[in-house]
Amino acid sequence: MSSTDRVDAAESVAVQREAAADPSVRTYYGRPVLKEPEWTWEVPWYLFAGGLAGASSALSAGARLAGLADLERKARLVAGAGAVASPVLLVMDLGRPQRFHHMLRVFKPTSAMSMGSWILAVYSSSAGAAAALELLGRWPRLRTLADVGAAAFAMPMATYTAVLVSDTSIPVWNEARRELPFVFGASAAASAGAAATLLTRPDESGPARRLAVVGAVGELAAGRAMHQRLGDLGGVYETGEAGRFERLAKTCTTVGGALLAASAVGGGTSGRRSRWRRAADVVGSLLVLAGSVCQRWAVYRAGFQSAWDPRHTVAPQRTRLDEGTGHRTDPAA
Amino acid sequence: MASDLLNLEGGPTRPGVRYGFFTDTSICIGCKACEVACKEWNGVPDHARGFTGNSLDNTGSLGANAWRHVTYVPQSDGRDPVQVAGLSWFGDDPGLPEGVHGSVDARGVPVFGGVEAADPTRTGFRWLMSSDVCKHCTNAACLEVCPTGAIFFTEFRTVVVQDDICNGCGYCVTACPYGVIERRQSDGGAWKCTMCYDRMRGGKQPACAQACPTDSIQFGPLDELRVRAAARLDRVVEAGYSKAQLYGHDESDGVGGNGAFFLLLDDPEVYRLPPDPVTPTRTVGAAWRAATWAGVALAATVASAFLGGRGRG
Asked: What's the whole-model pTM score?
């Protein structure tokens, strides 16, 4: 048993004992009703990489239209890195990685994973090709074609992962289906802006910095909206690993966003000021990126904690049956 | 008995007819013949778990290596037992007060886990037992989310995983509202009850239904089973079991009704069943709409970032 398994086992048993002792909900010895997700560490990193890549493609397209060549190039390279990492992470997570291509046997709109496989296939080949051609420095027209492909699928890439997570029976994920796309989309914007701010020449980095700040604010606001929607289910974001990642995410995103905002509005170009501003850019960008990673890990771990607790499944369903808004009709004869 | 008709060998299964299980838990004796027969016929690997302390249930739950799972719920005076850690029946738990371990009450009835009957002169006690299985839903969530097409509907409208297609993505595991299907650690694929698809194609009934000594597990055409179940429910309710209910028989429920449905004597959650299961496909439209709006908002945000100067600020 790996150490993660031991921690999981201990945490899930603790939840079971709590559920068994809770008089307000009837359960089977406090045992979970659902299975915990089979996904491993590659998935939250994929959620981050995919969002970073998609939003970076959009940023690169905007930079091209605005004539900011360095920003365009750097954002294209970041998108390419994310686009190459994403399929690798997903294939590694499979129980039978050598059969990854079986995902391309069907096109199933009811399955976010099926749709996502197609979105990822088109996006990652486009963005990966664009970045490769950028590095080779050749065939600019072909690179433009790849850019167009990447830009067309950039928004789906940055937001579909929220549908992937919420198209499940895990209560804390499914109940957040209306807010999670905004959390992930804003987080993608923040991380794309931050990465570009880190890498781009200062005299072209304005749009990237602004995107990072707006994205950070949006991520925090959408997160709040999600918690309000979740009600009691949102308790898992305050305890255990999900709680730790959530607090870390909020801290990093807030501080990082503030530093980038300060750098954006702070005036003057004298040597010392510009060194401070450069330092604020670097630290702020890294914090925003870290916050984005932690936000995805918080959502990921919250799913486990929600699956472990039978009360998450039973209580809302029993309530809606008692209120007459359930799907089962009155079962007694 | 009328149930013998559906449980005899022969009477070949007809493709195009929907078959299923009706599990009458009021006559389950908790022998676990179903668990054993299933594992033997299907060659399901071992799932060593040790003692759970949950009555006679040492399987714990359905999973990749447990396609039938018998649940046990002892209830004294209609109350659920208080869960105490460890082998409370043998008085191992140090948290119990002195003299309570393995004790008997005034009637000579053993006391579970230190819970005393509210009124020692009453004799109310019962043991709920049920053999849980994959529900073979009409709107099977596992099938609806499977990205490889490995999970499909057979000619008998049962739900089966094609192991040679499955790439172990595990998405079906998070979609199932009953917590049935699971990815097997040893080979990476998703596994669950097949309703003995191979036996059905050979005109036989599934192994569990054949092995069940009390006909608690009944197999046959689903519409015939539903008629029989309704009649049985009437008799059970007349006998005084006021909370008796059918579970999974109703096509208007959140999964379109189940191919494997139950007669329960108490609320579903007591048997580890979700009270009002829904397939996540019912809500995925709202999720995609939200994602579309989020994408529009993101595009607008990126565009607006270019208003204002090109440099800092």
From this structure: 0.90
